Amino acid sequence: MNRRILLLAATALSLGAGSLAMGQSLPPLEKKDRYKVGFSQMESNNPWRIAETKSFHDTAEACNWDLIATDAAGSAAKQVADVDSMIAQGIDVLFLPPREEKPLIPAVKKARAAGIPTFLVDRSVDPAAAKPGVDFVAFLGSDFIDQGRRVADWTIANFKGDKGVIVQLEGTTGSSPANDRKKGFDDAIAADSRFEIVASQSGDFARDLGRQVMETLLQAHPDVNVVYAHNDEMAIGAIQALELAGRKPGEDVLVVSIDGTRDALQAIIDGKMGVTVESSPFFGPLACEVMNRYANGEEIEHWVQVQDRIFTQDNAAKHIDEAY
Ligand code: GZL
């Protein structure tokens, strides 16, 4: 019987069999010298994902983690299986960026049932199906609705034309950033009657697919003069498509995005992109800090919110050296 089950059993026995401490609806995390930590990455197909995974590896030694990191290669089903495998290996704590809001619910529930405290990082799950403070400890991440809203507000303030014809490149279908970045932008841009979103299609957060989708949408909407991409990788792909079609990003079409990658900051410096709202991938140190607070018995806020900067012509050159 492993240590966690003993701990849970001891807790239950001390309070009467079959019950948990008042309000103890989460698995505890016993304070130890070293922790076996699971990090279930969804894919490694873009700089953001690679930077996030590196952040966890770079944090491991300083945080006394024996880190088990898996890569689901873009498959939610494989990510569920990867979590199963880490549970079987007896991890003490799980950090999970769920690729999509619904398919990863079983993984969250299995970890909870196995008495493993789970922290969702970077993306979250369907709140109707799993709750912070009950099924997982907390969500560590940005406010994606606010990110979309900030892009819209910047677009309204900086678009010079009388008529804004918008094409939207959505992130991974069913993911919390795609759902919320769409909601935040669509609701905010509606405040200005100059704008119309004529097409909105997923590019799966990927550069090449973003380019292909932009090529197709350009055929259907040659009058497009604003492109909103849910991440910089798709924005860079869209810029490639626009230039191949003889358009001049930054002159006759405004490209706006989210993340803050090095290529995006360079595109802003080059005048091809207008703005990118930051969505930091550097979750390792925050994960370490929150895990230690939890191991010390602190109550963790259900949403450990990451604050995001905004990058434009005014500050892109100043920050490009810290970008990924
Ligand atoms: C945001 C993260 C998103 C990034 C994309 O926290 O989930 O996934 O914005 C990445 O670049 O693919």
One letter per element, helices H and strands E, the order comes to: HEHEHEHEEHEHEHEHEHEHEEH
Q: Please give the count of helices.
A: 11
Please provide the count of β strands.
12
Largest sheet: 6 strands, parallel
Q: Strand-residue fraction?
A: 15-25%
Radius of gyration: 21 Å
**Number of domain units:** 2
Q: Note poorly predicted spans.
A: 11-23
What keyword list fits this structure?
324 residues; alpha/beta; Rossmann fold; six-stranded parallel beta sheet; six-stranded mixed beta sheet; binds beta-D-galactofuranose
Structure overview:
Helix 3 (about 75-90) packs parallel to helix 4, helix 5 packs parallel to helix 6 and helix 7 crosses helix 8 (about 230-245). It is built from 11 helices and 12 strands. About 50% of the residues are buried. Strand 8 (about 225-230), helix 8 and strand 9 (about 255-260) form a beta-alpha-beta unit. The radius of gyration is 21 Å and the shape is elongated. Strands 2-1-3-4-5-11 form a 6-stranded parallel β-sheet, with helices on both faces. The longest helix is centred in the middle third of the chain and has 15 residues, at about 145-160. The chain has about 325 residues and is of the alpha/beta class. It has helices at about 5-15, 45-60, 75-90, 105-115, 145-160, 175-190, 205-220, 230-245, 260-270, 285-295, 315-320; strands at about 35-40, 65-70, 95, 120, 140, 165-170, 195-200, 225-230, 255-260, 275-280, 305, 310. It has 2 domains: about 5-140 and about 280-310, Rossmann fold; about 145-280, Response regulator (Rossmann fold). The termini are far apart. Bound molecules: beta-D-galactofuranose. The site of beta-D-galactofuranose has 14 residues, from helix 2 and strand 9.
